[in-house]
């Protein structure tokens, strides 16, 4: 029993450290929502949207751009869609709208980044907003982003879109997805100029066109699958200020109603996060088992000290996780499932690794990447 209790101490230590870290990665203080802006002149902003088979979402995404401000430019790159994405996009009839017919990505390029690079050739404005085809912005959000970027001299500003959390699986797993992302890339450190940590959320990114041009366009990250964080790192390494925060004002309308769809979304880049390293996969497994598996096992032990230690770990987990649930208006009872959620994400990571080694590599939108 003493050995079992001793084996649980690292799990307890992990959550004590997470709770007490000076940068508080579990907090939701880094947040930005639409502000009342008097100046709605957006003639200096171009929204760049890569779209591949986005018929379910593109109309809503483009329609929302009508309410951002005057003079906004929009460039949509059709990345060889096989559905009626193009027809629906044209039907919205936006002003200053340009449709680019994308070509197959050259060797070494990811499909999304090649689409963005083709669209970048059409950009003539000082500001560029990279927007995913499933992200809907509330009115006046782009002026808010522009104002904050100018006031704080930010060269890159990104928002973690409000993910759809309606089904049971979405409520169970999507807040945790963001929680784990914040633990891996603490927003406070990412936003600190003196920190080496850099991160971004690719669904909604405002940046200065000249900065991207200086980096050589998207060619500098052409084969990156976690392209948002890689781009943020390159911009920060150049000495520029970046900022990343949560928001309720940019919403992803893409549904992840089943476990399988969420599993595919996570497994797509989970092993990429570990740099395709078996050693890091092993270390990740140990940490996840210690942090999430040990309290589950302890609660089934008759020994009181072991049970109490497991209960303490769960209490610390709940303390760290509840702020994220509260931010997304999810009932705190979902925090009780965090040990199970953590182990589920570990299985997704292993699935990602196994698919990398024994499948065709990373697959996204019917394209394979190794």
Describe the structure.
- It is a single chain.
- The chain is an alpha/beta fold and 370 residues long.
- It has 2 domains: 2-26 and 270-358, no CATH class; 45-252, Alpha-Beta Complex (Spore Coat Polysaccharide Biosynthesis Protein SpsA, Chain A), CATH 3.90.550.10.
- It is 47% helix and 16% strand.
- The chain is built from 13 helices and 10 strands.
- The chain has helices at residues 2-20, 58-64, 85-92, 111-120, 141-151, 168-184, 187-190, 209-214, 227-237, 259-273, 278-298, 304-327, 338-358; strands at residues 45-51, 73-78, 97-101, 127-131, 135-137, 154-162, 204-208, 241-252, 362-364, 367-369.
- The strands form 2 sheets. An 8-stranded mixed β-sheet has the order 3-2-1-4-7-6-8-5, with helices on both faces.
- Helix 1 packs across helix 11 (278-298), helix 1 (2-20) runs parallel beside helix 12 (304-327) and helix 2 (58-64) runs parallel beside helix 3 (85-92).
- The mean pLDDT is 92.
**Relevant CATH superfamily of the largest domain:** Spore Coat Polysaccharide Biosynthesis Protein SpsA, Chain A
Radius of gyration: 21 Å
Major sheet description: 8 strands, mixed
SSE sequence, one letter per element: HEHEHEHEEHEHHEHHEHHHHEE
- Rounded mean pLDDT is 92
Question: What is shown here, in short?
Answer:
The chain has 370 residues and is an alpha/beta fold. The chain is built from 13 helices and ten strands.
Task: Please tag this protein with its features.
single chain, 370 residues, alpha/beta, Spore Coat Polysaccharide Biosynthesis Protein SpsA, Chain A, 2 domains, eight-stranded mixed beta sheet, two-stranded antiparallel ribbon, 13 helices, 10 strands, 47% helix
